[in-house]
Amino acid sequence: MSAKEDIRKTIAQFANSFDLNDWSLLESSLANALTVDYTDLRENPPKEMTAHEYAQNQRKALEGLYTQHIIGNLEIAVDEQRAKVRASGVIFRASNDASFNTHARFLFGLLVDQDRGWVIDRIEQTVLWSEGNPDIQSEVKKQRTPRKLGF
C-alpha cells in the first residue's frame, strides 16, 4: 500500500471508531501524544493530550448519542515521515428526540510510528455551520466565530 492509501485508511478508522463506540480502535489511530484544537465547537482552547485522554474525552462527550462521522475530500501532502491532510466532514449526532449536526473542515497532522504505521498527532476542526440542538452534547458552544483552516 502507498503512503496515501495508508493515510486514508487511518483517517477512515479514526472516523469509524466513533460510530462503533470502539475507543481502543480510536486510540490505535492516534499518536501517543497529540495536539487537539476544537475551539470552534467547544469552549476548550487547543491543547496537547495523550491518545487515551482523547479517546476517553470523546467517549464521555458522545455518551448516549448515536453518531455518524463522514470524512471526505481528502487532500494529502506527504513529506517522508510526516503528512498533512485537509478534509471536509459532517458529524451527525442524535439522541432519542433531538439531533445536532456539524459541518466542518479538518486539518490532520500524521506521523509514522515505527510499530503502527501512520497515526494522527494533530486534529484541528473548523466548524462551517451546525444545525439542531447543541444541548444534546456536552461542552458545545452555542455561538461560534469561524476561523480559516491552514494547510
Describe this structure in words.
The chain has helices spanning 3-20, 23-28, 51-62, and strands at 30-37, 47-50, 66-79, 82-94, 99-113, 117-132. With 151 residues, it is of the alpha+beta class. It has one domain (3-135): Nuclear Transport Factor 2, Chain: A (Roll). It has a 6-stranded mixed sheet. The longest helix is centred in the first third of the chain and has 18 residues, at 3-20. It is globular.
Properties at a glance:
151 residues, alpha+beta, Nuclear Transport Factor 2, Chain: A, six-stranded mixed beta sheet, 6 strands, globular
List the helices and strands and how they pair.
Layout: H1 3-20, H2 23-28, E1 30-37, E2 47-50, H3 51-62, E3 66-79, E4 82-94, E5 99-113, E6 117-132
Parallel strand pairs: 1-6
Antiparallel strand pairs: 1-2, 3-4, 4-5, 5-6
Average per-residue pLDDT, rounded, comes to 91
CATH hierarchy: architecture: Roll
Q: Would you identify the regions where 5 or more consecutive residues have pLDDT less than 50?
A: none
Helix-strand pattern = HHEEHEEEE
Strand content: over 45%
Q: Quick one: how many beta strands?
A: 6
> What's the overall geometry?
globular
* CATH-defined topology: Nuclear Transport Factor 2, Chain: A
Question: Portion of residues in helices?
Answer: 10-25%
Supply the number of helical segments.
3
